[in-house]
Amino acid sequence: MFGTATVSGLGTVIVDAKGRTVYVLTADGKTNVPCEDSTGCTKVWPDLPFPSGVTGAAAGPGAQASMLGSMKLSDGETYPTYNGWLMYEFSGDSGPAQGHGEGIQSFGGTWYALNASGALVRPGAAAATATTAASGGGAGY
After folding, report:
1. Number of C-alpha atoms within 13 angstroms, CB side, residue 21?
2. Alpha-carbon distance 10 to 118, whole Å?
3. How high is the pLDDT of residue 76?
4. What is the arrangement of strands in the sheet containing 105-106, beginning at the earlier edge strand?
5. Comparing C-alpha atoms, which of 112, 99, 102, 90 is closest to residue 25?
6. For the whole model, what pTM was predicted?
7. Which of 8, 10, 75, 109 is the most exposed place for a label (fewest CB within 10 A)?
8. pLDDT value at position 128?
């Protein structure tokens, strides 16, 4: 099950059933940059394969069921997606509602949390937009 939680510095983001922030890896506008066991990526950014017999994720509070999906990868396992993004945890988050993985550049891209609308959370960009808007211009399992 995936839902939302408020994470300091990030706002309301998608979390897994344990309340841990989930992250996505992007580079040069590409979604789902590979994070594979063979590169050591999943040791730092654990993937979230469905347990045996489970084929879909459930939406908890705050998550949009229409954004949840699944993707079967070449390893034969099926993984949950949100707005088409494969989701991962960060080994540096020791518990629920932490966002230590946000903005880290590693394994060929940058890691971001997702908001309930399925968009990348970029706190610096949000702050700049809020400042611009406040001054009278800008846009807004």
Report:
1. 29
2. 14
3. 87
4. 23-26, 109-113, 105-106
5. 112
6. 0.84
7. 8
8. 36
Residue 99 token pair: 């966002």
pLDDT of residue 124: 65
Beta strands in the chain (DSSP E): 3-7, 11-15, 23-26, 68-72, 78-82, 85-86, 105-106, 109-113
As a whole number of angstroms, the distance between CA 97 and CA 16 comes to 10
Q: Taking the chain (141 residues) in consecutive chunks of 10 residues, what is each chunk's mean pLDDT?
A: 95 96 91 89 95 90 96 90 96 96 95 96 56 30 41
Distances (CA, A) of 129 to 95, 110, 139: 30, 21, 7
Asked whether 47 and 111 are in contact (CB, 8 A), the reply is no
Cα-flanking dihedrals φ and ψ of residue 129, to 5°? -65, -40
